[in-house]
Amino acid sequence: MTIKGKAYIGGIFEHPARKLGDDISQAELHAVCLKGALDDAGLSFKDVDGFYGAGDCPGGILSMIDYLNLTNIKHIDKSYTGGSSYLYLVAHAAEAIAAGKCSVVILSLADFGRRGTVVRDRGEGIPDQPFEQPFGPVTVNLYAMAAMRHMYQYGTTSEQLAQVKVAASHHAQWNPNAFLKKVVTTEDVLNSPLVADPLHRMDCCVVTDGGGAVVVVSPEVARSLKKPLVKLIGAGESPKDQMGGHVDLTYTGAVRSGPIAFAEAGVKPSDIKYASIYDSFTITVIETIEDLGFCKKGEGGKFVMDGNLISGVGKLPFNTDGGGMCNNHPGNKGGITKIIEAVRQLRGEAHPKVQVKNCDVALAHGTGGSLGTRHGSATLIMERE
Amino acid sequence: MATPYQARTLKAPSLNEGDAPFFEGAVAGKLMIKYCNDCKQYHHYPRPMCPFCWSTKTEWKQAKGTGVVYSFSISRASGPIPYAIAYVTLDEGVSMMTNIVETDLDSIKIGQKVTVTFHPTDDPKIAIPMFKPA
Amino acid sequence: MATPYQARTLKAPTLNEGDAPFFEGAAAGKLMIKYCKDCKQHHHYPRPMCPFCWSTNTEWQQAKGTGVVYSFSISRASGPIPYAIAYVTLDEGVSMMTNIVETDLDTIKIGQKVTVTFRPTDDPKIGIPMFKPA
Questions:
Q1: What chain A residue is nearest to B3 in terms of C-alpha separation?
Q2: Looking at CB atoms within 10 Å, which of A111, A227, A310, A348 has the fewest?
């Protein structure tokens, strides 16, 4: 069985706010995003028969279904792999729809940004925690160790990493909702303070409040809607970890999730006209584009030079909304915005300055957790029908 | 640039069942790692069941305590003082998360030879293995 | 059997954004519930968006404060003292989770008419609506 052609993205919504006050609850923010995506699709909440969520559902998925008074739910899924959760959820929705379990699945991200970079106690009974927490692991230094090793092993440079941020800023200038709209230079990135060597502040994504939502529907429902048809044709997922002590920080779970998705979709990396690549940090993008096969392993740094990630300029237009680097990374999770911008590109709804011409096949990839210890990778491939 | 090493006050982690030999070993000045008697491989972090063959015939062994830096990062914004988080690949073949200590943090290099050193925590029964230049 | 009602000390719940009118109303002796001006229905617990039509055109209204016991249970092992948890269906048509108080707990019956009464918490701004026999 395959999901290819069995499910469509019917609706999308990205909350326009990047900073929210204390007058809106997390549950209400979910509701606003879900309503926005259903309105975009032209569907009612009464049409919904599948509800999926991640770790940001306050009270868990059952509290959210109660809050929203969804009375026709036949299928639920709560997959939580950090910021990539939402790509997993879309894939799982497509699988459930393909299996005939439901026909309209909604899923949302709604959260508030957590500033700072402090060591957190993750809870009780976590097997790895006693062997890591004493050493001060935080999100940024775990990604930084991946960057350090990638530079050592492949000669990747800080200037190359900076191109990811520079390209994202070129796109963000056209997005009126972007958190950072200013175009930045390589020097701006290299002159920003080191947060965790070799990553500078501008190698890191923004911290924003907000969210978004996606509606996944069956082919029958999709054809009844007024929006351009965006069809899921491939999905792959893979966790990656420390492998019992055989640590290798130079690749991501995309080495497995990518080929699975490409095989199911029946397309090659060269067929992808636009890619949403999870950009928690600049190194995330470099490793991911290698692992997805957009360039040879170790050549991600060279690949991103010369504006190759900039729409209208380079070979692989990426994150044309400005990405997590500049636009939005709501609640420290960038997965939902990756899906949303890929759908905008396929519908032809991206900003005219960044819209990719004849964008018929697009990819969205999520990396949730940490490149250093454990992360969940998920790849979606979509096609305009 | 020089970033002198400053000792951090270490809070003892909450241990799970079976973890104690690693931390008690560190108190006694020994780096203890797990070895599987079925597939004859070391693993880390330590588990009761070998992650490579799922055998439960695992035992604690004292590692030599020497290795090389696999990767590292100087965290400059996460604590009151900068510190070097690292993965060190032990001579036994497994890599462990640790800190590099007792050296100018800006002099740390991938591939550098390091040797274990043990740092106390606020619990006298629990110490933490870290590494310094060999 | 008789199980005399004993007052419990109530800790104020942690409120979410938008919840305050319910609890401040209780502190002022008013039972406040949400009403949707689009679909003309009350709902409970209170939400900014009507759960029946997803309209945000909702407002707080003061309920009459009378209703009937929909169901209940005497919790005899959960706290230091027995207490009666219940759903009460208000005259406005919605049922709310609550406690039945100020009566022999063993006399409570489904269908019994009850009337609201307000209990203080450890936060003077937050009261809790409970119900007693009418």
A1: A197
A2: A348
